[in-house]
Amino acid sequence: MQGLLERGERSFSFEFFPPKDEAGEQQLWEAIEALEPYQPTFVSVTYGAGGGTRDKTVAITGRIARETSLTPVAHLTCVGHTRVELGAILDAYAAEGIKHVMLLRGDPADGPRASWVATEGGLTYAVELVELARSRGEFRIGVAAFPEGHPSAASRDADADVLAAKAHAGAEFAVTQMFFRTQDYFDLVERVRSRDVDIPILPGIMPILNLNAIRRQGELIGTDVPADVVERISAHEGDPAAMRAEGIAIAAELCEELLAGGAPGLHFYTLNRSKATLEIFAALNVTV
Fold first, then answer.
1. Active site residue 120
2. For 286, how many CA atoms within 13 A lie in the half-sphere containing its CB?
3. pTM (2 decimals)?
C-alpha cells in the first residue's frame, strides 16, 4: 500500500464495520466480495467505542487477510483500554498477519462532543497510540484527519499541529473524516504541508443516501452539510430514488474535484454495502 502512494499512484480504499448479527455478517461479506475485483489499495475495519467490537474487528480483519487478496487495515482506539491491553491487541493483530493499522483516540461513549476521560492506565492521545504501535512491531500506521477540524480542537491550526505530531511519531498516511467541500480538504493539506509533513492524506467519502442521517452524523462529528447540497437533495423530497441518485451525483462531483486537485486517492465509507460505491465509480468512469 505504502509503495503505491509513494510512487504517486492513486489509492482507492473501502471502509467496513463489524456487523451486529448474522444477517449483517452476510451483507458485509457480500460487499467485500463485490468490491474485491476492483483491487482496492486497502480495506479497513472499524473498532467500536469502548472496544465493543474488538473481537469481531480482529476476526474479520484476520479473515480478510487469510481468505482474500485484499490488504486489510485494522482500526484501534484508546477508548476503554489500558496501555497493556492496547499492546495485547496490537500483538493479536500481528499474530493474524495484519501489518496495517488505523490508530485513533476514538470517541467517548457519549459521542465525539463529550468530554474525554482517559481510562485508568490508558492513553489520552492518538499520538501515544502511534508511539506504542511503533514500539511493538513493523506496523504501517494510518491516522485520522479532520478537514473541518476535530470537534474538540481549539482551531484548525491546532488540529493540524496534532496531525503533524502523529506523522512525526510514525504515522505514514491519514484518512479524513467525511466532508462535502473540497476547499476544506485542500486547506487541510496546505496547513499540514506548511508544517513540513508530507504524508498522503486520503479524503474520506460518504455519499448522501439519507439527508437526515447525514445531518445528524455531521452535527456529532463537526461536519457541515452545505446549503447548496441540502437544496439539491431536498429538491427531490418525496422521491427516494431521485434523492439517492442526486446524492450519488454529488459524491461523484466531489470525487472528481478532489482527484483533479491532486488528492492521492479516495477512501469510501461503504456502510457495509457495495452498491453506492460502485455507482460512484461508474459515474467517475475510473479504473481501480
1. no
2. 21
3. 0.91
